[in-house]
Amino acid sequence: MINRRGFLRHAAAVTTGVVCVGCGLRHAAAQPATRREIVVGGRRVRPVDVHAHCAVPAVLDVVKGTAMERDAKRQLEGNLGFPVAAARVADMDKDGIDVQALSINAFWYGAERDLARRIFDVQSVNVAQMCKAFPGRFVGYAPVTLQFPELAAEQLEYGMKELGLVGAAIGGNVEGEEIASARFDPFWKKAEELQALVFIHPQTAPQSTGITKRIQGSGALGNVIGNPLETSIALAHLIFEGTLDKFPNLKVCGAHGGGYLPSYAARMDHGCSVFPDQCRGPKLKKKPSEYLKQLYFDTLVFTGEGLRHLVTEHGASQLMIGTDYAVPWVKGPVDHVLNTPALTDEQRIAILGGNAAKLIKLPA
Question: Please, which residues have CB within 8 angstroms of residue 105's CB and are 6 or more apart in sequence?
């Protein structure tokens, strides 16, 4: 196991995450907001946002002079660096979000082992401190160094058992390698053992999906097309390479509504019958589309019809609120669920917070 002292050796340099580089006047001007309480069918509901970003200023001291310094700075200087402070809580109160699950987009998969350890040390302690600074409002994902699967497994266990984190946030690939590769089985095994929620968020999507040239021009296509595509590919490999058969009790959530896969999953069921020579992986225990019923997705699909379709295809039990905070993708994330037609009160309660509360074991 990882030495506890090793994880905490950078604690003296840790901040509570309230420092923000280049965050402008928005934070200083923020005023306390009245906390919106959500009631469905006469029941007070606790909405939980499983897709909210943060960044750790203290990590700059660790990555200074390395290839990762630029990406770390970019997070801190952009919306991903919006601090865990009063202004964030005010935004949550306005939207009716009671709890945010904090994740850091992985920029450290190219780090060698010692540097990767130090990056995790600083970031994991910081995330834990951010959560403690506002009791009951935040939970955190462990920023594991997935390029070293055995180490990532130890970090996940440490993060959950010692720091109070609720799971792990990982990218959809590791330097171009699929997260369904058998090399990552030690991490998946530990995640299943701990019943950790593993949140998958795309990174460097144009490069990892091979569409860099195709997304040039107008439309922010690197993000708009690339990010959902990256998640779709990652989830498809977890299915077809047998990861979800080896670890059937994994709790995996795909960002951005799971990408494109949940909207066209039935095509997977026919692919191997049409092209059997291209399906030489492990024999699956059920139809490919059926594995989506053991995966989870956030609600970042923008329209009521999109959300209704996810519920119809995969069930309200598999959906949780995701906002991508503080990137301004959506307004009224709670209202998005409340106003979607054809949902029952029980389905709305599950999506708004019931499912997440069970997965990350929030206290009643």
Answer: 53, 75, 80, 169, 171, 201, 203
Full-model pTM:
0.91
Could you give the CA distance from residue 281 to residue 174 in angstroms, rounded to a whole number? 21
| Ramachandran bin of 82, using left for φ above 0, alpha for ψ from -120 to 50, beta for the remaining angles | beta
Q: pLDDT tens digits for 177-206?
A: 999 999 999 999 999 999 999 999 998 888
4-17+41-359, what's its fold?
TIM Barrel (3.20.20)
Q: Is 171 helix (H, G, I), strand (E, B) or coil?
A: strand
**Angle in degrees, CA 348, 349, 355, rounded to 5:** 110
Per-residue model confidence as pLDDT tens digits over 50-109: 999 999 999 999 999 999 999 999 999 999 999 999 999 999 999 999 999 999 999 999
Distance CA 198, CA 351 (A): 18
Look over the chain and give the mean of its residue pLDDT values, rounded to a whole number: 91
Which amino acid makes up residue 299? T
